Amino acid sequence: MPKQQLDSLDLSILTMLSDNARKPYLEISRECGVSGAAVHQRIQRLTSNGVILRSQCVIDPSALGYDTCAFVGIILNSPEQHEAIVEHFSEIPEVVECYYTSGRYDLLIKVYARNNQHLLQLLLDLQKLGGTRTETIVSFRQVFERQSPVLQAIKEVSR
Description:
Strand order of the largest sheet: 2-3-1-4
Mean pLDDT: 89
Distance between the termini: 24 Å
Strand content: 15-25%
Shape: elongated
């Protein structure tokens, strides 16, 4: 996707929505000094241009009993396996992210499990796919998470 031309109003809206995707358009319009209709139109344009991909409700996995988070590097023996493996991962609810990568791993997945035993069972199931090796990194705690660097983009527009 080509880089979108964003002005300071677009970036202000994106900053507010990245902090709180449920922030009312009227509140955004007041803080930006424009009409609610202008904010609505901007958000519609940002969405149709693919700048805003989605809004989501973020749920704490541990609140649902998923206390173990792990990143699993997948090494495939054959490149022909990529599509079938990715399709298989997309059907496993505990696999919440999947990336094609360069370097040591062909794929990197993020997995939530109820506990270490559940994680072990998931890993054993992955190894049944055949022709794959895995390396697992268990996360003890997420230190921070953030959206795309909207504030950095604002600084660049201001220059």
